[in-house]
Write a structure and sequence with these properties.
This protein is α/β, with parallel strands linked by helices. It is 54% helix and 13% strand. The chain has one domain (10-177): 3-Layer(aba) Sandwich (Rossmann fold), CATH 3.40.50. It is built from nine helices and five strands.
Length: 178
């Protein structure tokens, strides 16, 4: 059992929008027989509104406050695979505890892959509100570059999510169990 595993049986998946956190998270949770939780979906359910609606009504700062509160709560739960929102890594005051108490996997996809996924996802506009007011593609590349150092520093494992899902799941499972 590795040093991380002895602390918790929770895995946090981090990364940019459309890097596969929810898709991979569901498959991984099923494989490891853990519960799956998508932070954005939980916040939407708690607030009775989409992220787009929340941000339009209350702004990003309010959303980030809700996100931080949920992140704090999740630190005290076990047997989870958590798909974070792309900006969860911005909670640097909480992140050392996340790193200590869970196994954090950074799913990193090539910018072209992320762009393609965003353009092909009919839910993008309602689920992924603008962070900067720029076009989705320009904004995505900019945000990915800005957050890369945080993702790198704030994870135990980095995986390129451009590869086959089975390979990603197997790699995470192996690293988590060692």
């Amino acid at each position: 059992m590795n040093e991380i595993q002895r602390f918790r049986s929770t895995i946090f998946l981090i990364g940019a929008r459309a890097c596969g956190k929810s898709t991979i998270g569901k498959l991984l949770a099923n494989r490891l027989q853990l519960n799956f939780l998508d932070m954005d979906s939980v916040i939407e359910e708690q607030q009775g509104a989409t992220i787009q609606q929340l941000v339009a009504k209350e702004g990003w700062a309010s959303f980030r406050t809700k996100e931080a509160a949920l992140l704090q709560k999740l630190l005290h739960q076990d047997n989870l695979v958590v798909a974070t929102g792309g900006g969860a890594i911005l909670h640097q005051d909480i992140w050392p505890a996340v790193m200590e108490k869970s196994f954090v996997v950074w799913l990193n996809a090539d910018i072209d892959t992320v762009r393609t996924r965003l353009l092909e996802d009919h839910k993008t506009a309602e689920q992924r509100p603008s962070l900067t007011g720029e076009s989705l593609l320009v904004e995505t590349e900019k945000i990915m570059k800005e957050r890369e150092p945080l993702y790198r520093k704030g994870s135990h494992l980095q995986i390129n999510s451009d590869q086959p899902l089975a390979k990603i799941i197997a790699t995470i499972e192996k690293e988590f169990k060692e």
